[in-house]
Design brief:
The chain contains eight helices and six strands; from the N terminus they run H-E-H-E-H-H-H-E-E-H-E-H-E-H. By secondary structure, the protein is of the alpha/beta class.
């Protein structure tokens, strides 16, 4: 499948990868689109997939998936205001998604806490793969906080749009 090829090109074994964070290098890199397409591709390959909007600064994933970016979501789960089951939605592509959450619940500092570990444990029996959509790495350290709690991280950049030195520096930060 295209998903298996994508993983193989990056040296990742599909059976080892259970959680992944994708972050753009710069704003408008298309990370949310890549996350939604990757989720749909993995679902088409027969995997049970959950995509999660962890971009508390400029959430977009819910609107891409046909929902409301200001509805209850990840932030509400991390603050304890909502249960995971209440914020998981099914997309027509076959993958499930969680939006960023209500504006007042989007507290960036919670992304690097044990609350993410608790979320991953809560969904691990229902999903084969959890993909987080993080804000641009050059703007915030949110993606780095998440990267330490998931199996892999990937940087999304626009070819010819971002400076090679910046991309190299961001890659070193994730290593």
């Amino acid at each position: 499948s295209p998903f298996d090829c994508w993983l193989a090109e990056r040296g990742l074994a599909t059976f080892d990868l259970r959680s992944l964070v994708l972050a753009g290098g710069m704003p408008r890199a298309g990370t949310s689109t890549v996350v939604s397409n990757l989720g749909a591709s993995a679902a088409a390959a027969g995997r049970r997939v959950l995509v999660v909007d962890a971009n508390f600064r400029r959430p977009r994933l819910a609107s891409i998936m046909g929902g409301d970016d200001a509805a209850a979501g990840l932030g509400d789960v991390l603050t304890g205001a909502a249960d995971v089951d209440a914020v998981v939605h099914q997309h027509e592509s076959g993958c499930c998604w969680i939006g960023a959450g209500t504006p007042e619940s989007r507290i960036v500092e919670r992304l690097g806490t044990a609350a993410i570990d608790k979320l991953l444990a809560a969904v691990s029996d229902r999903f084969d793969l959890v993909i987080f959509d993080a804000p641009p790495a050059v703007v915030a350290g949110d993606a780095l906080s998440l990267a330490g709690r998931v199996d892999a991280a990937a940087l999304v950049v626009q070819a010819g749009e971002e400076e090679r030195g910046l991309v190299s520096r961001l890659v070193r930060q994730f290593a």
